[in-house]
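User: For my dataset I need records formatted as: sequence, then C-alpha cells, nothing else. Please produce one.
Assistant:
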Amino acid sequence: MKNLSIATFGGGCFWCIEAVIQRLKGIKSIKSGYADGHIKNPPYREVCTGRTGHAEVVQVTFDPEIISYHDLVAIFMTSHDPTTLNQQGADKGTQYRSIILYHDDEQKAIAEKVFEAVKPFYADSIVTELKPFEVFYEAEEDHQNYYNNNQEAGYCRMVIDPKVQKLRKMYADKLA
C-alpha cells in the first residue's frame, strides 16, 4: 500500500470544497464533516446555528506522490475567498470560516509558504485560520458527494459550477 496523507480544509460550504478537490489526480477519498468545535458528533442542524463552534470541512486522503500537499493548499486557497471572515458568498457564519487544520509541522510550514505566495493576488488580507488538527466528525450521508449527486440543484448550478469551471481553467493538468 502506498503512503497516503491526510489534509483537512474548510472554506465555506463543504459541498464546494469537496466538489473541487475530488476532481484532482491523487485524491483517494474525501469526506465532508465538521471540525474545530466544542461538542462531540455535532449534527448538521446544530452546526448551522454556529453555536457548536465547528467549521464545515473536508478531510482528504491523498497520494503525495501524485499531488503534493503544497498543490492541494494552493488549489484550496484559490478555489474560495480566503479574505472574507466567516463567509463565502451568501453563506454566513463561523461554520463557513476559511480554515486549514494541519496534521503535522511540515503541513503547517507548507501552508504558511502558500499563504505568502498567494497574498499578492488578493486586495484584502487573508483571514484563513491555520490550526492544528484535533478531531473530525463525518457529516451525514446526504452531505457526502453532494455536487456529483445533485448537479441540477440551484445551489450546485449557481455556486459550485463556477468553482469547478475555475478549477478546470487554472489547474487542468491536475485533474483526474
